[in-house]
């Protein structure tokens, strides 16, 4: 379908749904008059989405998916890991963004996600697990590229202050602003954030009908919060996750467990050698005294015992 | 055998204590107090004398009480074989503090919170929707199929520990949470007269391209087709199995009857006075192809068969085809409801009908002329 047709269709739809304003602008306008500003778009959020070097294919696709789902996002080229994190604030400033989502890659396998409010606000660092992208064929749903999502949160987000801060940050970052020029009219998908096992599970569903029938569209991942900072990409630690185990620790534990196999085998061998008896087991010869044989069952040589010799 | 004796304590500094392979005392005799330094190796125990001072009893008691815990620990470590020769220094325990600055968090939240009406945010915090009965049924079904499949492979399988089933239940709970949001959200949006569901004929740029959606559809179709095929194959297998069973049964029955028949014949031959009645009557060896028939039916069928054979089989009836004996001209069998010949016709025997009538009467034997009607009922009652 051509672009014009699409636009016409869109315009038609909008007209049908949103009726013409009751106030009609005047037919004649003075050129010296300043143009009245449209003041409908008040929530001005712009999110800078970018990553560091050393990204794997899956994480790169995840980032691309985030960019498609957030029409209020801007992208940036890759950043070196060695550079200071605080520089990101300046980069965001240059692009006129007030929020930032930064994908930090370490060791070419671990992915950390930073969500930050650049202008003096808090920032959170997450460890990303179980990432699945939109391109997987099991995700059968589809949605409009720039429609506003409904954001669904678990009631557990209200129970602790650190979860409340994280929730607020997620709402401001992931929610498409109202009346954004790029945004499209319908509300046809839901971002679902749930808390399970102290981690945030993210799902994106398409709404098929008003009864609440859903089908999964988009990326799914699990965020394990590590720390909440007072400032953007730094500052005082407001909250620290006591149950967080770094991927390095997990890796080293696995390796140790693997080595236990060898050392256990050695210990077992040693133990066996110590326990092994040197001489074969010899029965007690006195046990044979009480073993009697019936005369009927006596074999050839033993029959002599039972035969009485006549004197 | 080895002695456990309190040892000389070296003091290096005020803060740190150094313990040199010490052993706690277990109420050693208060008389003599020897100071030994036990240097421990893996297999051997070597006692080396140190240049010790004699300690006073009060000192010993103090030492004991202060160092009992760490000493006990050391003893245990030795038992396990973890102590190595050399100096031991007690390290300071590092307790990791986890920050939870509640007031800081709350103030920060107030500081950066978006103080705009709800429509700008579109966020919902709701409990998950209650389980729909269909969803519940699905979960149960998934559990059952999973259990059936895994029990055959691993007898220690439990459904609670199964990650696949737990995954399914977890996804269902997320689904329900999103459902609750949708129901609540659409209500609110409709109150504000905002569009909710995307109509099917709305063409706009989508998050996933059309080609991708085609791939997805293709995959779903393939899955469906695969399922159908496997179902059909299963059915056919079932039918074959059943058919095989039935076939075997029927064969066995046949063999059994044959055997019985032969045995009976043998018995009869060997001189048993039982009559040969079993040969006639009863079921034929062909078996009940069409279910249980009564004796009457069988007789009738048999009669019909034999009659037809006689008449049409093997070149048809031969014996009584051409005969001209006294019986036939008489033809005293009752004619079946034939119209009595009227006067006119009856008198005039020269017309076409007359000729026919004459012809019939004249020839005898065959009732009709060359093209005459042959009454197949042969005088018997018409149905």
Automatic annotation (TrEMBL), chain A:
SMART domains: Brix. One of its GO terms (molecular function) is rRNA binding. It holds the Pfam family Brix. GO terms for biological process: ribosomal large subunit assembly; rRNA processing. Residues 45-234 form the Brix domain. Keywords: Nucleus, Ribosome biogenesis. Its main location: nucleus. GO terms for cellular component: nucleolus. Residues 1-35, 269-288 are annotated as: Disordered. Residues 17-28 have a biased composition (Low complexity). PANTHER family: RIBOSOME BIOGENESIS PROTEIN BRIX, RIBOSOME BIOGENESIS PROTEIN BRX1 HOMOLOG. Required for biogenesis of the 60S ribosomal subunit. Belongs to the BRX1 family. This is Ribosome biogenesis protein BRX1 homolog.
